[in-house]
Design goal:
By secondary structure, the chain is an alpha+beta fold. It has one domain: Gcn5-related N-acetyltransferase (GNAT) (Aminopeptidase). It has 5 helices and 7 strands; from the N terminus they run βααβββαβαββα. It has a 7-stranded mixed beta sheet, sandwiched between helices. A hairpin with a 2-residue loop joins strand 2 and strand 3. Helix 1 crosses helix 2. The protein is globular, with a radius of gyration of 16 Å. The two termini are 32 Å apart. This is Ribosomal-protein-alanine N-acetyltransferase. Keywords: Transferase. One of its GO terms (molecular function) is N-acetyltransferase activity.
Length: 169
Amino acid sequence: MTPGGPGESATRLERLRYEDLARCAELERELFPGDDPWRESVFASELDQGHYYLAARVGAELVGYAGLSVVGRRPVAEASVQTIGVDPRWQGRGIGRELLRALLDRADAFDATTFLEVRTDNAPAIGLYTAHGFEVLGLRRRYYQPSGADAYTMRRPPASEADQGRTAS
């Protein structure tokens, strides 16, 4: 849990609920104004499909969200970080890191290779992902629309592969 500043409560993570989706869509519009932010219906579709979505809350306020899809089973499971978003007023307090760690714990439960896309100009996110074992695989030109921003595709090996690397050293 993320400790708050003076007078702030700790952040808690819990499953995202349908009642949260309007707030998620609102944050999407704020976070991704030059691109095609997810609408409420997109989040609802993700929940309907059974994907793993979390809400970060401070008190009753939703201050962040994140989602992961997992396909397949051991030993060939793959996970995809679908989204991570943190209210700009709450950024820089470790909430995105907390959400990512929770998603990766879920991926590790399936021993899944995990993939994601990130804007090439989002240095803080790239740093966060690299610190959690992701490596750049390639470049997707004009991936984000309508801005035309490029994205890196990044990969994190499954926990069993990462563990082998640690024990071999």
